[in-house]
């Protein structure tokens, strides 16, 4: 999902930087002191998971975990992903500095979208919670593939075939990420549900019901 240096046009790179800056600013505004440890752990998990990658043209296939990041962090996924991508670019030359903005938008925007789509379902009964978790993991990668393809096509129309190849190549990753999201949500609901979104509201409703 990393776009390499020298592939995208200057307008696409500029737009990516602007959007990443805006998203990161919103995320930092929402980053309270009690969420810093959680954000650091999830950013590190994203960093490690996406180190193992298979190159495909100007991009690559690898685990992303942006679905679970978005589910747990919301807008804070922007700074968490930005820092991880920056370290990957500096330490391992994955992606790059000029593409940092675009790569952040590719992975963080779907994370935020999936947060708003599915965060309200994680405390529902098990079947609904697991279905929402799977959809969150699956669609976050699917949306990232679409955003990546859009960035390529806005650079050059001849990249259309590459864009479709990227989407198709990520289909197995989408299913894996969906299963990972189910496992993470199920585990956290048992051991530390306060890490999941809207836990306080759910706990209050359960307490009143009792």
TrEMBL record:
Keywords: Cell membrane, Membrane, Transmembrane, Transmembrane helix, Transport
Key word Transcription regulation present: no
Membrane-spanning parts: 6-28, 40-57, 63-87, 94-118, 130-154, 161-188
Primary subcellular site in the record, as a coarse category: membrane
Pfam family, one: CbiM
Single GO BP term: transition metal ion transport
Domain of life: Bacteria
Gene3D superfamilies in alphabetical order: 1.10.1760.20
Places the protein is found: Cell membrane
Membrane topology term: Multi-pass membrane protein
GO cellular component terms listed in the entry, alphabetical order: plasma membrane
NCBIfam families per the UniProt record, alphabetical: PRK06265.1-4, PRK06265.1-5, PRK06265.2-5
Name of the protein: Cobalt transporter CbiM
């Amino acid at each position: 999902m990393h776009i390499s240096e020298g592939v995208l046009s200057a307008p696409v790179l500029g737009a990516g930087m602007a959007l990443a800056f805006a998203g990161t600013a919103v995320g930092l505004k929402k980053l309270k002191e009690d969420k810093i440890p959680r954000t650091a752990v999830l950013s590190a998990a994203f960093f490690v998971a996406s180190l193992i990658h298979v190159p495909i043209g100007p991009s690559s296939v690898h685990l992303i975990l942006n679905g679970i990041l978005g589910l747990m962090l919301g807008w804070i996924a922007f700074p968490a992903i930005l820092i991880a991508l920056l370290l990957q670019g500096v330490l391992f030359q994955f992606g790059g500095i000029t593409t940092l903005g675009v790569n952040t938008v590719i992975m963080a925007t779907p994370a935020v979208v999936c947060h708003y789509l599915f965060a309200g379902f994680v405390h529902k009964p098990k079947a609904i919670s697991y279905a929402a978790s799977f959809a969150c993991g699956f669609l976050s990668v699917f949306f990232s593939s679409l955003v990546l393809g859009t960035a390529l096509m806005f650079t050059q129309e001849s990249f259309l075939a590459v864009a479709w190849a990227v989407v198709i190549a990520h289909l197995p990753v989408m299913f894996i990420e969906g299963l990972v999201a189910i496992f993470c949500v199920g585990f956290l609901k048992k051991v530390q549900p306060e890490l999941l979104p809207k836990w306080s509201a759910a706990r209050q409703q359960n307490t009143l019901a009792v």
